Automatic annotation (TrEMBL):
The keyword Heme applies. Gene3D superfamilies: Cytochrome P450. It comes from the Eukaryota. Pfam families: p450 (PF00067). The keyword Acetylation does not apply. This is Cytochrome P450. InterPro entries: Cyt_P450 (IPR001128), Cyt_P450_CS (IPR017972), Cyt_P450_E_grp-I (IPR002401), Cyt_P450_sf (IPR036396), Cytochrome_P450_monoxygenase (IPR050121).
Length: 570
């Protein structure tokens, strides 16, 4: 394929030089131009014929694999370029095209891909042969400029070593000790929502009979950002109480709202080095650079401050227990490596957990019976602890953590949310060396795709009712690809579960939630499964229990410890 493409480009260039030569030496220009044009048209026809007919039929190494029936030059096997979500298309193909675990398909301009559909094939790509596959250049250039060499972009031995160094901080036992911190932020969020309800109803109490509408996704986004600060670094970003502080404004700039422009850029990225596109002098590019530089500088100062603090720490004072402190204490990481990891936690761990909270609110907000059952479980077990006035430190904290972890329905609802709405519903990898999947030879450079959305809704794995949101079903980590699988799977799984049960438990335990528009399930354009309009719900306080938390579980705001002005010194 490549050699054909090279020949074709060479011939096209030749035709253009020939045309230029004619102009330069004032040969019979019209005659020369006509000949060159005919040549170029023939070349274009040749290229299209090769891409559409000859390559897929005779030259591809995957010609024996099943493929979707129709193919167009511009859109490949998809009928439209951006209207359908790739995870929906992948699922449709997995279910309707008879296959033994691999399907070949074509994207725009006849670029060939392999879709892996069977658990056996997935385990080859994600588990046993994980280090034979790497992220695409597009993902690398788009995300790596924020995260540097964080875990997501390391490969082979380097990845193995650094992940091993970080794992103790993310292990179940350690995350359990941090549950009071998750809870403290969840309880603070609930109390701030409650305050906003009071303000809202006092404004126009007389005209209103309904309870006020609350954008729950907006609160979730702030709580989850603060949690990364507290649990990840031991500092409070304080965006729940100060939503417009400098840090959250700059942080927002780091993200690209999905749009058609981005889709076109992605398409162009197949042909033009994506790095060139990222340096175009457009406003969004400038904002992305500005936001990420600011956040990186903050991360650098945080790490630097923590190193100094650790050096000063006396033997009597208890050591910090946040993720960065544990990683630092291991002595495995350089300052720069830790900055990259912190940036990765922000990119990988914020929007993902905020979205999971959003979907939990969406499902519960349109299922009153499920919500009541959950509220009863939460109140029976957690409210009593708070009513007795116990805080969330030490023994009381352990008690809270053990209780929350053992609530069956709360944990089942959260697991079902993660299965039903996988945050990375469709992903691609590139083979970094020749290998095989289920006996099929996969040459280096092949792009391989898989869809967690299809696996997590596969009737063969989850039963015929796989498309029903049902916390009663037995979930299994092996069948769910919510966190991917194998050596490169999500390091934040236990963190996510702890965070989600605290946020969902504290919210549903205190409020009755009714979705404003239960039928609105329109999704945002983009790479993740996310509601286009967020979760807007009528929220009513259910009397009877108010959450408390020990103040000391929330550290002092970051702004009071280090100078958040990028030009200032710490
Ligand atoms: C709902 C919450 C989350 C979901 C669904 C999720 C999902 C995933 C998935 C699917 C991957 C694999 C991505 C890939 O290979 O392309 C991943 C990787 C990763 N996640 Fe998460 N994640 C979540 C939360 C978090 C949190 C809270 C953190 C940390 C604070 C985190 C840190 C990471 C890191 C560092 C990686 C790269 C791991 C590696 O390459 O070894 N994630 N996550």
């Amino acid at each position: 394929m490549l050699s054909f493409l090279t020949c074709w480009l060479g011939l096209t260039l030749g035709a253009l030089i020939y045309l230029g030569y004619g102009f330069l030496y004032k040969l019979d220009v019209a005659f020369q131009a006509g000949k060159a044009m005919i040549f170029l048209v023939l070349l274009a026809i040749g290229r299209v014929t090769y891409a559409l007919v000859l390559y897929p039929k005779y030259f591809t190494p995957f010609k024996y694999l099943p493929t979707p029936p129709r193919r167009w030059l511009l859109t490949g096997n998809q009928t439209s370029l951006f209207r359908e979500f790739p995870w929906d298309v992948a699922r449709r193909w997995s279910e309707t095209i008879p296959n033994n675990g691999l399907i070949r398909y074509y994207v725009a301009l006849s670029n060939e891909r392999l879709l892996v559909t069977s658990p056996k094939g997935l385990s080859k790509v994600l588990v046993h042969g994980a280090y034979n596959y790497t992220k695409t250049n597009l993902a690398r250039f788009a995300i790596q400029r924020f995260t540097g060499n964080g875990l997501g972009f390391l490969d082979g031995e380097e990845h193995r070593m650094q992940k091993k160094g970080l794992l103790p901080a993310f292990a179940t036992g350690h995350i359990k000790r941090l549950i009071p911190k998750f809870w403290a932020k969840a309880a603070l969020m609930v109390s701030l929502i409650e305050r906003s309800l009071e303000n809202d109803s006092s404004k126009d109490q007389r005209q209103r009979s309904d309870s006020p509408v609350v954008p729950l996704h907006y609160w979730g986004t702030r709580a989850t950002l603060d949690i990364i600060g507290v649990v990840g670094m031991g500092y409070d970003f304080d965006t729940l109480t100060h939503p417009h502080n400098e840090l959250s404004e700059q942080y927002r700039k780091m993200f690209l709202e999905p749009s058609n422009a981005f889709n076109w850029l992605e398409l162009l990225g197949n042909y033009i080095d994506f790095r060139i596109l990222l340096t175009l002098p457009v406003r969004k590019n400038r904002e992305l650079t500005q936001g990420s530089q600011y956040i990186r500088q903050v991360a650098e100062r945080v790490i630097h401050h923590k190193i100094q603090k650790q050096q000063r720490q006396s033997e009597e004072s208890p050591p910090d227990d946040d993720i960065v402190a544990i990683a630092l204490a291991s002595g495995t990481f350089t300052e720069q490596q830790l900055v990259d990891h912190v940036m990765t936690f922000l990119v990988a761990g914020h929007e993902s957990t905020a979205t999971a909270f959003e979907w939990a609110m969406y499902e519960l907000g349109r299922r009153p019976a499920m919500q009541s059952r959950l509220r009863e479980e939460i109140r029976t077990h957690i409210s009593s602890m708070q009513v007795e006035g116990r805080g969330t430190t030490t023994a009381a904290g352990t008690h809270l953590a053990t209780t929350i972890e053992s609530l069956p329905y709360l944990n089942a609802v959260c697991s079902e949310v993660l299965r039903f709405y996988p945050f990375v519903p469709f992903a691609t990898r590139v083979a970094s060396r020749d290998n095989t999947i289920q006996g099929t030879f996969v040459p280096k450079g092949t792009v391989v795709a898989f869809a967690a959305h299809a696996t997590n809704h596969d009737a063969a794995l989850w039963g015929l009712d796989a498309d029903r949101f049902d916390p009663e079903r037995a979930t299994s980590n092996f069948a769910s690809l919510a966190f991917s699988a194998g050596p490169k799977s999500c390091i934040g799984q236990e963190w996510t579960r702890a965070e989600l049960v605290c946020l969902v438990g504290a919210t549903v335990g205190r409020f009755e939630i009714a979705l404003l528009n239960p039928m609105d399930n329109h999704l945002k354009r983009g790479k993740t499964i996310k509601l286009r309009n967020g979760v807007r719900a009528r929220v009513k306080v259910v009397d009877g229990c108010q959450w408390g938390f020990a103040q000391e579980t929330i550290p002092v705001p970051l702004s009071r410890i280090i100078n958040l002005n990028p030009s200032g010194s710490s």
